[in-house]
Model the fold of this input.
Amino acid sequence: MPVEDKPLDPGDKAYRPAKTEVLIVHRQVRIGYKKSYGGMSPYIKGIMGGGDARLLYTVCENAGGHDRGGILRFQVPRADCPECYGRTRWEQLPDGARFYVNTLSTAVELAGISFMDQLPVTVAWISAVLPGPEGAELDTLTAGMVRVEDYTRLKKGDELRPVFRHSPRASASDAMWVLKGTPKEGWPEGYVQSKNYRV
Ligand SMILES: [Zn+2]
Done:
């Protein structure tokens, strides 16, 4: 576990409350480990497709085993149903699915190692609606990463579209979200449109 310490800039605000002489260092730590996405692997593989990326969700059709009856649909997907504990089935969200801002998170700057160089980004909770006459809404909200510049402009009900990292890192941040119709220049750097979801 490589550790690198260097003295903190004396002007750093971390020194402000100190009444006695203190020394503060900036410590950089790199940790390597094997991370498994387990049952979530199909979802991560789907968003790693760049221009061919796919958004997958899971379905549990065991209506009788659910608290309020009915089919349950999960996005971000769940490999196991949280209500009847059965295995779910994987499906792909089609191009005609619509995505709306449901709630804006109060976490204005979301930290995450895999996209530290792209901070700040933040999260909008997104509801997904399937196309067709039934217009079924998925039963969970997606935590969608958006750029802070966009975040300040977004409001509840705005329609979003996904964009995907051109060179994926096998991370949830391989998918980000922009307002529907945003021209290419307004997409996050390094992200492309998937042929499966036109912006
Ligand atoms: Zn179930």
The chain has a mean pLDDT of 87. The pocket of zinc ion is lined by residues 60, 62, 65-66, 72, 81, 83-84, 86 (CB under 6 Å). The first helix runs from residue 41 to 47.
